[in-house]
Amino acid sequence: MRELSLDNCRLDKRYDIQRHLGRGSYAEIYLARDILASPSSAHNEVVIKALNVFLQDDLDPDLERTLVENFQNEAVALDRVRHPNIVSRLGHGTARDLSGTVFHYLVLEYLSGGDLQKIIKQETLSPKRAFGFLEQVCAGLRHAHKRGVIHRDIKPQNLLLAGDLETVKITDFGVARFSHADSPITRVGTNVYAPPEHSPVFYNGDGVMTVARLTPAADIYSLAKSTYTLLTGESPRFYVNQPITQLPAESRNEEWSDELRRVLQKATQDDPSARPQSVDEFWDELAVVRDILDENDAPTAIRSSLSDTPQAHVAPGYSPIAPMQPRFNTSRDLRRRFPAIAEDPKRTAATGVSYALGEPAESTGTGVRIDGLPAASEQGNRIEFEIPNAYVPRPRKSFGFLGKIAAFIVFIGLFGGLLYGTHAYLKNAGFLPGGGTQTKTQNAVANTDIFLRPSPSANNDPLGVVTKNSRVKIVNSQNNWYQVDVVEQGRPVANQGSLARGWLNGKYLDID
Known about the structure:
Order of helices and strands: EEEEHEEEHHEEEEHHHHHHEEHEEEEEEE
Number of strands: 20
Oligomer: single chain
């Protein structure tokens, strides 16, 4: 196991590493200050989640590729479910630590209020405040499920409070899965909160699920056990892999205890189909408990803001706009492109990089950026990362007469290509004669599960899922979207009516 060396460093000429917050099985977490952000900004402090594949003792190329893919999928999942009650991704990057180890990182918002598990240990939450937090968690999880993402590890430790101590956000989407994914489902989660379908009983020797299909009911189970903790202040450790049948003695005399026990017992059944199948259904089951709390609260305070549908709580600094998605490579791929990277630190340092902290440098240097790897210079007693001098571009030579002619020809070619591309786009969009949608009829096969859309855009609610190997007939096309008639589904889809016509993205189709 080899930890990253990032003490007193600056990432990407922007993030000053302040302290190490912790580490998991594949990533290290750091608190950093964004020197480009205003001191009054909600994101003046950020979290750097650094992928460190060398935390694995038995690392091999396949495992490393899996870890990098999971890290990238976490970014994709966070962007897909962007919501006021889900932690936001602010950026990403690839850098090299002081020992020469290449690593990828995500920049996440910093939630300074701590996790709910820690809060519960420090103080007893009133039922009203606990339900307020629960409503926000339900709002975020409901949104994630609507976007096709299942968290798989809901627990109080992954529910963090913002600095206002009123806004709670779901974190750690590192093991999240897309509900329509075809790949095998591996065992994850904390035993106390994980559903039975995550138990070793249901897995083979490789940790792959052998029975239940992953559905939102898995998150409902974990949400119910987290609700137990929020409202009673105790962990459901006596109900590992089994339904909750009783509340702690301190909570049994509450007016709402019987109704809460009934709801939690149903939501923690071993059979996923016996549980509520959505967050909305679970929230509706809790209506009686909410009503009792409202009645008890009305004489002394403003009536509860809890609503029939879980409502989000927006903290300062939230933006619905996600940053550019990353494309991470394995360290093996990076070494192939830049052979000196991540080799022996002494050898790398010989090419012009200083790793040791020292006196303030006379010059800050120019810094070089290659394919997204951060530039570096030494400022004060902080080290910024740079590519070895062997990879600094050589000074450009002045062009001769033939060089100028070649440059002119290249310029004319690029300008002509730009004009042609603009003309093709306008024609295809229907702004020029002969453009617009196409009417040629073709057949195609879906190469993965894909949402059927009512219009040629991903910014709408899907009509349903067209499964992998489904046969469709293309009746129209617009840009890279195809309007299709679903001829035959690749496999049966539960709780979905017959799909007739809609739009699919062309990259998910194999056209005959």
